[in-house]
C-alpha cells in the first residue's frame, strides 16, 4: 500500500501550516481535502492557501474548478486518487490535508460513487414539499439514512430520496461496500482548547473582512442567479444573501459567519471522532513529527 499522511481537524486550527511544514521536512506534496478551496476566485472566504504560505511546496486540488460549475465528492475522489499516484511516482510523500470529513473518507476508503440518474418528475414533486414532509418521507423509505441526516438539510434529504427512488436506498448502498482502507495512512488530528479555537475563528473572520471579503463576495455572488451554485453554500459567502437582499447589514453578516464557523468546527470534531481512527495532538506538539518519522521508518523497514 502507498503511504499517505492525513491531517484533519476543525476550521482555523492550523492544518495548512502544519502540512507545509511536514512537506518541507519529509519530501512531501500537499493534496487539499477542502470542498471549497477547489473554486477559482474564492480566495478570502475559503482561507485558501496563498503562494507565500505554500513556501514552494506543490499543492493539488486548489483552484481547479470554476465557481459556477458543480463539484462533488465523486469528482474529488477521482482527482485526489490521481494526485496521490502522481506524488508517489515522483518519490514524494502525499499529505492529504483538510476538514471536509466526507471528502477525506472518500479519498481513503473503497467507497464507490455511482452516477445518479435524476427522475425529473419525481424531483419536481419533491421540491414542492416542505422540509418536514420531505424528512418524514425519508424516515419511511430509508430510516437509517434519516438518522444521519439533519431534518433541515434539504439538499441531502432530496439526494437520499432520489437514490432510494432508484430501487436501492443510500444506506443499503453503503452497507454493500467493505469500508476498507486503501492506503497505509497516518491519520493525525489537531486539537486545541475550544475557547482558544473559537477566538482564532473570530479573529480570522475579522481578518477576512479587512482583506476584502465583502468585495470578493459581491463580485462573485451579488446576483440572485448565483445563489444556486454549489460554491455559494460555503460558509463565508452564503451569509451575504440577506445583505444582498437588503435585510441585513455587514455587522450581522460578520457575526453570522463567526457563529456558523464555530458551529462547523464543533461538527468537524464530532465527525472525525466518530468516523475515523484519528491520533489527536495539540497544535504545535513536536511529537507529531517524531511519531510520523517513526511510522515512516517502521513501514519502510
Strand content: 5-15%
For this structure, the quaternary state is single chain
Number of discrete domains: 2
Give the helix level as a range of percent: 40-55%
CATH architecture of the largest domain: 3-Layer(aba) Sandwich
Detail the poorly predicted runs. Answer: none
Element pattern in H and E: EHEHEHEHHHHHHEHHHHEH
**What number is the mean pLDDT?**
91
Question: How would you classify the helix and strand content by structural class?
Answer: alpha/beta
Rg: 20 Å
Q: What is CATH's topology name of the largest domain? A: Rossmann fold
- What is the highest CATH level, the class of the largest domain? Alpha Beta
- Which overall shape is indicated by the principal axes computed on the Cα atoms? globular
Question: Total number of helical segments?
Answer: 14
State the major sheet.
Answer: 6 strands, parallel
Number of DSSP-assigned strands: 6
What name goes with the CATH superfamily of the largest domain? P-loop containing nucleotide triphosphate hydrolases
| Arrangement of strands in the largest sheet | 3-2-4-1-5-6
Report the span from N to C terminus.
14 Å
Give me a quick take on this structure.
The protein is an alpha/beta fold.
Amino acid at each position: 500500500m502507498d503511504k499517505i499522511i492525513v491531517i484533519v481537524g476543525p476550521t482555523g486550527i492550523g492544518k495548512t501550516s502544519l502540512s507545509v511544514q511536514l512537506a518541507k521536512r519529509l519530501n512531501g506534496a500537499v493534496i487539499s481535502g477542502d470542498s471549497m478551496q477547489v473554486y477559482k476566485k474564492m480566495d478570502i472566504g475559503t482561507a485558501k492557501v496563498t503562494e507565500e504560505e505554500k513556501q514552494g511546496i506543490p499543492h493539488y486540488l486548489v483552484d481547479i474548478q470554476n465557481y459556477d460549475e458543480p463539484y462533488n465528492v465523486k469528482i474529488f475522489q477521482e482527482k485526489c486518487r490521481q494526485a496521490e499516484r502522481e506524488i508517489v511516482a515522483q518519490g514524494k510523500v502525499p499529505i492529504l490535508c483538510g476538514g471536509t470529513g466526507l471528502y477525506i473518507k472518500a479519498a481513503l476508503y473503497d467507497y464507490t460513487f455511482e452516477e445518479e440518474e435524476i427522475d425529473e418528475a419525481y424531483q419536481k414533486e419533491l421540491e414542492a414539499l416542505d422540509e418536514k414532509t420531505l424528512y418524514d418521507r425519508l424516515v419511511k423509505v430509508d430510516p437509517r439514512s434519516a438518522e444521519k441526516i439533519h431534518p433541515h438539510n434539504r439538499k441531502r434529504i432530496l439526494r437520499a430520496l432520489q437514490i432510494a427512488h432508484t430501487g436501492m436506498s443510500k444506506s443499503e448502498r453503503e452497507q454493500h461496500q467493505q469500508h476498507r482502507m486503501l492506503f497505509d495512512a497516518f491519520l493525525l488530528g489537531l486539537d486545541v482548547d475550544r475557547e482558544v479555537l473559537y477566538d482564532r475563528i473570530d479573529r480570522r473572520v475579522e481578518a477576512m473582512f479587512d482583506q476584502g471579503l465583502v468585495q470578493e463576495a459581491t463580485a462573485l455572488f451579488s446576483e440572485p442567479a448565483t445563489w444556486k451554485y454549489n460554491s455559494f453554500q460555503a460558509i463565508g459567502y452564503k451569509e451575504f444573501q440577506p445583505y444582498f437582499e437588503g435585510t441585513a447589514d455587514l455587522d450581522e453578516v460578520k457575526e453570522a459567519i463567526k457563529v456558523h464557523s464555530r458551529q462547523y468546527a464543533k461538527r468537524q470534531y464530532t465527525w472525525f471522532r466518530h468516523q475515523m481512527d484519528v491520533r489527536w495532538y495539540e497544535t504545535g506538539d513536536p511529537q507529531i513529527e517524531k511519531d510520523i518519522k517513526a511510522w515512516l521508518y517502521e513501514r519502510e523497514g
